[in-house]
Design brief:
Structural class: alpha/beta
Strand content: 15-25%
Order of helices and strands: EHEEHHEHEHEHEEEHEHEH
Length: 259
């Protein structure tokens, strides 16, 4: 079973890899997170103009690369020429340690091949990427180590019968909010897990209530993005299973102490 489906554990997930220390959603970032010992790696996928599933958070390449334009309007050949480490800095732009080091936007198929034993939590950023993503996962024989989620409910429907676990969509989370606020159990839910932020638009999300609402259905709750020890401790105390963090090294010792 995918580790993130095991309720009652205390797990650490690398958000876009080891994002605090390496360019997000790149092979070096994933490699650093895996070397640190994370329980899983979280990443995001889009679809290129020619139908390739690529690892990228934003709809455009502008923020993280030396290029410009929408991912959906660029072919894989065009995306592969961009420097995905170009804009990474840990000191607000005084230095650019990853520029011109050959860091590329990865294809998801290549990520699965590069890390054959790593569990992944995949956020599908656009619904049209869902079906091609399913094909990539199935072709790699990776259905047991990949789970998917999306704000878009339709994206999850593409995985029906696949054996790939699907997380709560934004619609699912909204529908469960009344029960979470009242801390009422939902015996059945239409998803295998839930990944939520502790805050949304400045309003605290009832994380403990969500844990209470989903516990009977066996759907663990994961929280993103947490980068401080005190918040992680508080969330684990509430029954959260996984903390998704930019800085796994900070939280891994805490997991080992409190698991």
């Amino acid at each position: 079973m995918h580790p993130l489906l095991s309720a009652g554990r205390r797990l650490v997930v690398g958000h876009r890899g080891n994002r605090a220390h390496a360019p997000e959603n790149t092979m070096p970032s994933f490699a650093e997170a895996v070397a640190l010992g994370v329980d899983a790696v979280e990443l995001d996928v889009h679809l290129s103009a020619d139908g390739v599933v690529v690892v990228m958070h934003d709809p455009t390449v502008d923020r993280t690369t030396n290029g410009a334009g929408a991912v959906s309007q660029l072919t894989w050949a065009e995306l592969s020429t961009l420097d995905a480490g170009h804009r990474f800095s840990t000191d607000r732009g005084r230095t650019w340690p990853w520029r011109d080091r050959g860091v590329q936007i990865p294809r998801f198929a290549d990520v699965l091949a590069q890390f054959p034993a790593t569990p992944f939590l995949i956020e599908i950023k656009v619904p049209e990427a869902a079906r091609p993503l399913r094909r990539v996962i199935e072709a790699a024989g990776a259905t047991e180590r990949c789970i998917v989620e999306s704000f878009h409910h339709a994206a999850g429907l593409e995985f029906a019968g696949s054996g790939v676990a699907v997380g709560a969509s934004q619609r699912d989370v909204t529908a469960l909010l009344p029960r979470a606020i009242m801390r009422l159990s939902a015996p059945h839910v239409g998803f295998a897990f839930m990944a939520i932020p502790p805050w949304h638009m400045g309003i605290p999300v009832p994380v403990g209530g969500m844990v209470a609402a989903t516990r009977a259905a066996g759907a663990p709750v994961h929280v993103w993005t947490v980068n401080d020890v005190s918040t992680a401790e508080r969330l684990w105390t509430k029954g959260v299973t996984a903390i998704i963090t930019d800085d796994p090294k900070l939280l891994l010792p805490l997991r080992q102490r409190t698991a």
